[in-house]
Amino acid sequence: MYVYLYDNFVRGKKYASVVRAMEISLTDYGIAGKILRLNSYSDVKPIIEDELKRGAKTIVMVGNDATFGQVLSRAATTETTFGFLPVGSNNTIAEVLGIPVGPAACDVLSRRRVERLDVGWINNRYFVSQLHVLPAHLEVVYDERFTVTARDQMEVIVCNLQPFYWKRDKKDGEVRVVHPQDGKLEAFLRPLTKKRWWGYTYEDPSVFPFEEMEIRGSEPFTVSADGKVTKEIKIKIKLAHSKVAMVVGRNRKF
To answer: Residues 25, 26, 27, 30: is their CA dihedral positive or negative?
Structure first.
């Protein structure tokens, strides 16, 4: 049995025709199922666990990157198969998974090509897409072996499934993309260099694959992981032991 978790935004009139086309396609493939609607306050883990007790075999997220992060940051260790039907914009994860946006995603779901995906762990919670530490005065310790610091502020991005897009500064017209790699976590460190009156510019990022990393701040710094934003003074990041079983497309990037 399939259970579909609809993000709140897909209820809007803007997406009504797309969602209707997807539902028709799912019925044609014989994989239509129960629909549950989420909101920003939904605790998805007990919802999913309850549906699994009722006989659900596949949990499908319907939405965008934020939906993906909201669900899997809580339910990544649940023993089930997950699917993803991307809708609208802000769908960089779908591209990595090889899933087209809109009704064509139903074809990928119906084929059930399943891969097991890495899960990141940070301070007793999980992240699946990306972790972002906003610029601050930081000290980064890799695998308890060596330490990286910057003369001034530094930004840290840890990619798992979600690509990292960046520019050297606000005036830079070229958008650069760093794709995550499968089987490990990679941290992208970008020191900030202060230049005269226009403030900070970024240096090119250094890439460090790692098993475990600790980030410390001289004062609380801002961390965003799968859409959840917190203030921390120290975080520990590592690859979780468990993996997520996910339906992917043949054009996936890993």
So the answer is: positive
